[in-house]
Each structure stands twice: as structure tokens, then as C-alpha cells.
């Protein structure tokens, strides 16, 4: 079993890495992307990546059905 303190630290480190990755994606693509088709493709890819990260986070959360 993971100690709750270690779990919190791991999530904070993961959140920092995700935020840095998102910033780098935004910075790179805002400077390099031109054209409507390429911009649409990059936007779709980035949105899919974000949705996948949110899915992984939501999957790690356990929801209780007990009232």
C-alpha cells in the first residue's frame, strides 16, 4: 500500500510534468503551425491528448456508491 504522503507527492510531480508538457506543446505549436488544415489537425491532436490525460486521472479516482 502506498503511504498517502507519497501518493500526494507523486500526483504533484505528475501534475507539474503535465503542465510543463502542455506549456511546451502550446508554445511550439503557436509558433510553428500555419495553415487551416494543419492547425485543425494539431488542435484535434492536442485536444485528444488532453482528453486522454483527463481520462487517466479520472480512472485513477475511485468513486464510492455508498450513501
Description:
By secondary structure, the chain is mainly α. The chain has one domain (4-60). The protein is built from two helices and no strands. The two termini are 26 Å apart.
Order of helices and strands: HH
Main β-sheet description: none
Number of domain modules = 1
Give Rg in angstroms: 17 Å
The number of E-state strands comes to: 0
Secondary structural class: mainly alpha
Unreliable stretches covering 5 or more consecutive residues: none
Overall pLDDT score: 79
Count of separate DSSP helical elements:
2
Global shape:
elongated
Q: How far from one another are the termini?
A: 26 Å
Proportion of beta-strand residues: under 5%
Determine the fraction of residues in helical runs and give it as a percent range: over 70%
Defining key terms:
67 residues; single chain; 2 helices; mainly alpha
Summarize, please.
The protein contains two helices and no strands. The chain has helices at residues 4-32, 36-60.
Which SSEs are present, and which pair or pack?
Elements: H1 4-32, H2 36-60
Keywords: Membrane, Transmembrane, Transmembrane helix
Organism: Arabidopsis thaliana (Mouse-ear cress)
Protein name: Transmembrane protein
